[in-house]
Amino acid sequence: MEHGEHLAAIDLGSNSFHMVVARQVHGEIQLMDGLSEKVQLGAGLDKDNRIDDDTQARALECLGRFAQRIAGIPRGSVRVVGTNTLRQARNARQFIDRAEEVLGHDIEIVAGREEARLIYLGVAHTLADDAGQRLVVDIGGGSTELIIGERFESSETESLHMGCVSFGRRFFGEGNITEKAFDKAVTAARQEVLSIHANYRRIGWQQSVGASGTIKAISLVCVENGWCDSGITLDGLKKARKRVLKAGSIEKLDLKGLREDRKAIFPSGLAILYGIFEQLGIEQMEVSSGALREGLLYDLLGRFSHEDVRERSIQSLMNRHHVERSQAERVCETATELFRQVAGDWQLNDEEMADTLRWGALLHELGLAVSHSQFHKHGAYLITNSDLPGFSRQEQEVVAVLVRGHRRKIPVSALEELPADEREPLLRLCLVLRIAARLHHARCDELIPAMKLKVKGNTLTLTFPSGWLDEHPLTLADLEQEQEYFQAAGCELTLS
Question: Above 90 in pLDDT, residue 354?
């Protein structure tokens, strides 16, 4: 990435959509512009967990305005992520297809722990680089993230199923604020935190920090009303609770510093934070200006400067499941060379394609940690269901399909479940990986000869030096069997 080039990050939250535009200056992020709109995507979920038409229309209108601001920023310099509501919604894929068309950029759905990691990264870059553990809390519309970390690295990441929109519907759905309902919301929040309480208290922290809109709103109310000098204290929360209960309803809620568009979710957000303070024994909390959006920008910057956390995740997964590294690297090297030969003809010049193939090659034997029988399926399952920092759900799904398809029948049905524009490129990566894995079936360091791979559509011609296949009859038999699998999937492999 060249110095001064613009970056953008968009967070499709359950309550609000946020966008920041920035540029890189000497390895740091300089924020230039920001937009935020209260879309309330989470409130648009119906009883069948589908985003209703009105909410989708409101969301797409917002993204249309965002699209105007990021016009001209290259695809690789924009990251767009969906969080809790898009993790839950049954029609998320249909909405994302429409949203991607409006934005002109891909949308990633990130898992809860990945969201937590990114939040911590954004917070850490807005605080003094002090030693010592810090606890970071971020209350969103549908989930709440709690993270422990030191400096720029998170060590514990959790995403709990509670948010100001979901709790608002659950406890204050009619707009009334009663002491009984508020206390029930606090108890529900404490129950959620209970699952991580012992571990988090054992690790401990020297500093607690809050992030994002809900906590910022609570802090502003506490400061504006003189209940805190800065940040948030437990005493300030108690005074805010008293005033909220005195109002009796959201309609009558009138607190200095509370914006009109925050009233509906203020009681539920306050109850969640109150429960977190009580359960974890927090007395005082600072408030950060950074959160998920800033974390996305710094994570993107890391990818440009070859500090991609995804690489660490792949290596960690290999270590955890005792992947035979020498074999993985043999297959990876050969697959990469074959890819280089065909990338132009297949128009696979996207760097992400090369990365996906490399990750699939390194993990193709991951499932042997479970069982040799059907190990390609076990490997795909492990990739799909592991927490892999840096990866979106879609990225994990694509790598999983590649691992699933590196042997036996080509998984045409799994490919058909992917977005239409991803099917053919991934099929072609799968064909390359299959050939590389077959060529290293012997699991030895014997050098593979200089061979040439030519492609025309989904017809592949693999040419070896004269006589080499005759001298390696088992490899020839493997490739002839592969020809049958190719043919069953509507592809062709020719040997010469």
Answer: yes
Closest CA to 172 of 245, 232, 279, 259: 245
Q: Give yes or no on whether 6-110+295-300 and 127-288 have one common fold.
A: yes
* Residue percentage of the chain with pLDDT more than 90: 89
pLDDT surpasses 50 at 421: yes
pLDDT at 3 over 80: no
pLDDT for residue 72 is more than 50: yes
Pick from 464, 466, 444, 442: nearest CA to 453? 464
- What is the CATH topology of the domain spanning 127-288? Nucleotidyltransferase; domain 5 (3.30.420)
> 45 and 115 in contact (C-beta within 8 Å)?
no
Tell me what pLDDT residue 350 has: 83
- Answer yes or no: are the C-beta atoms of 338 and 438 closer than 8 Å: no
pTM for this model (two decimals)? 0.87
Q: Please calculate the CA angle 316-318-323 and round it to the nearest 5 degrees.
A: 160
Asked if residue 483 lies in contact with residue 469, where contact means CB atoms within 8 angstroms, the answer is no
Could you report the per-residue pLDDT of 307-326, keeping only the tens digit for each? 789 999 999 999 999 999 99
Q: Order of strands across the sheet with 133-139? A: 153-160, 144-150, 133-139, 207-211, 284-287, 232-233
CB-based contact 55:44 (threshold 8 Å): yes
Token couple for 34: 């920001």
H/E stretch holding 189 reads: helix 179-203
Look up residue 226 and give its two tokens. Answer: 């003189």
Q: Which residue has the tokens 């991607």?
A: 100
3-class DSSP state for residue 90?
A: coil
Q: Which of 368, 294, 361 is nearest to 29 (CA)?
A: 294
Please calculate the CA angle 431-437-441 and round it to the nearest 5 degrees. Answer: 145
> In the prediction, which pLDDT does 351 show?
87
Q: How confident is the model at residue 50 (pLDDT cuts 50, 70, 90)?
A: very high
Hey, where are the domains in the chain? 6-110+295-300, 127-288, 308-448
User: The dihedral of CA 128, 133, 139, 142: what is its sign?
Assistant: positive
Q: Which two tokens stand for residue 330?
A: 């043999």
**Nearest alpha-carbon partner for 43 in 193, 129, 167:** 167
pLDDT band at 4 (very low <50, low <70, confident <90, very high): very low
Q: What is the mean pLDDT of the segment spanning 35-63?
A: 95
CATH for 6-110+295-300 is 3.30.420.40
pLDDT at 1: 37
- Nearest in space to 224 (alpha carbons), one of 254, 257, 260, 271: 257
Q: Which residue is listed with tokens 């991609």?
A: 308
Mean pLDDT value across residues 347-367: 94
Q: Which homologous superfamily is 308-448 in?
A: Hypothetical protein af1432 (1.10.3210.10)
Measured at the CA of 263, the angle between CA 226 and CA 161, to 5 degrees, comes to 105
